[in-house]
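F.,

This is the one I mentioned.
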């Protein structure tokens, strides 16, 4: 395993100086960052302190899109190889929790299958099939809870297909990844991390025995491509490590992007009517939803060396968090940033899929999968209405906890 460094702890005197210099950041809490309806606090913070000291986070918080992009750029002086990395603590070592050149070694065998053309060829038909089959199960009911009826099993079943491993128990897999997501918090409670560690062991026990099957000649899955690649030097355990995080992106974030896009469309009747009249606009709706309510709402980095960000000198070993929820609403980049606009021409300039060497491996698949799911729901469920919807919430991952749809039957 790579050697981890430890995050610097700021003494009380320095903390007091930073609190005095950054009063808006000092007043912001972790609860504020996850509570629905408090997004305006991030907007206020960005206007006053686009990079700020946030004591409740134990580090720096970036809310400006350009500064966030700077933090995530290659050769920015940042690292993820730190003991306090919540992604590593929750999901283990993998490509997202190591620096170059190890990051490239772990990621390279997986990249070809996720290029736009290959992703469409390999996965589009199965995405449509799974969506149709799930909708068949409730279309005659006239109502459903979108998460358990569609978004969750859709994401899990597609993740299983992508990696080519039999994961038949949707509730088990969904529970494992919920444990991972719940552990990515900064409140000091060890219990969520303990649950995530147990969930990781359960998932490894499912995945490792299946790799031999994935080696079968003629298999077209991601796992099979990786295992047969002569340039791949990963051990079976390392392959499982990568599959674990690939599945995370294919489960938690897909659930969120499907639910968030449906929420925004059904709350915007005029734009919904446009999409119903012209299905090509679905792609703009998906991109705009991912910008305005990013499924991954927070990205963490640490300074590997002394850096200057936004005129602020920051020493080595300090924590810097990027709020993609805030950066994607930056009025310096996005006109009328709080509005949902399916015609926005720069929605993809948000940081929802991160940036730099750690940018999302499955970005093309995620956009395609969400668009196909939304199209299928709109095509198969006439007269769709949003009967009830909780406001999106969550610190690291953000979506409505529940959403009820109704539609016309017969």
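My design for it:
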């Amino acid at each position: 395993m790579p050697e981890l460094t430890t995050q610097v702890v700021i003494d009380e005197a320095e903390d007091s100086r930073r609190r005095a210099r950054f009063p808006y950041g000092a007043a912001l809490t972790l609860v504020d960052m996850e509570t629905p309806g408090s997004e305006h606090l991030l907007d206020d913070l960005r206007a006053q302190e686009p990079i700020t000291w946030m004591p409740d986070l134990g580090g720096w918080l970036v809310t400006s899109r350009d500064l966030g992009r700077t933090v995530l750029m290659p050769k920015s002086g940042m690292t993820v190889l730190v003991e306090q990395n919540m992604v590593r603590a929750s999901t283990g070592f993998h490509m997202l929790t190591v620096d170059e050149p190890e990051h490239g070694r772990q990621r390279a065998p997986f990249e070809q299958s996720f290029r736009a053309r290959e992703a469409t060829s390999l996965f589009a038909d199965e995405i449509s099939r799974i969506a149709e089959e799930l909708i068949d199960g409730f279309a005659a009911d006239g109502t459903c809870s979108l998460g358990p009826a569609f978004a969750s099993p859709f994401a899990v079943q597609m993740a299983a297909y992508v990696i080519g491993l039999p994961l038949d128990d949707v509730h088990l897999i969904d529970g494992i990844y919920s444990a991972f997501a719940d552990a990515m918090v900064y409140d000091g409670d060890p219990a969520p991390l303990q649950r995530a560690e147990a969930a990781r062991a359960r998932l490894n026990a499912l995945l490792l025995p299946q790799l031999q099957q994935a080696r079968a000649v003629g298999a077209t899955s991601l796992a099979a491509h990786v295992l047969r690649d002569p340039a791949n030097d990963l051990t079976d355990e390392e392959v499982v490590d990568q599959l674990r995080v690939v599945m995370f992106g294919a489960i938690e974030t897909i659930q969120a992007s499907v639910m968030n896009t449906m929420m925004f469309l059904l709350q915007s009747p005029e734009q919904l009517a446009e999409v119903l009249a012209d299905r090509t606009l679905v792609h703009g709706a998906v991109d705009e939803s991912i910008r305005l309510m990013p499924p991954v709402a927070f990205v963490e980095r640490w300074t590997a060396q002394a850096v200057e960000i936004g005129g602020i000198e920051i020493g080595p070993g300090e924590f810097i968090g990027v709020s993609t929820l805030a950066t994607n609403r930056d009025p310096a980049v996005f006109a009328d940033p709080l509005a949902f606009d399916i015609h926005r021409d720069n929605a993809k300039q948000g940081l929802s899929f991160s940036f730099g060497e750690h940018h999302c491996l499955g970005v093309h698949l995620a956009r395609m999968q969400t668009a196909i799911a939304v199209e299928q729901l709109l095509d198969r469920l006439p007269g769709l209405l949003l009967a009830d919807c909780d406001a999106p919430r969550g610190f690291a991952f953000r979506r409505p906890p529940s959403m009820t749809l109704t539609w016309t039957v017969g």
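The longest strand covers residues 298-303.

Talk soon.
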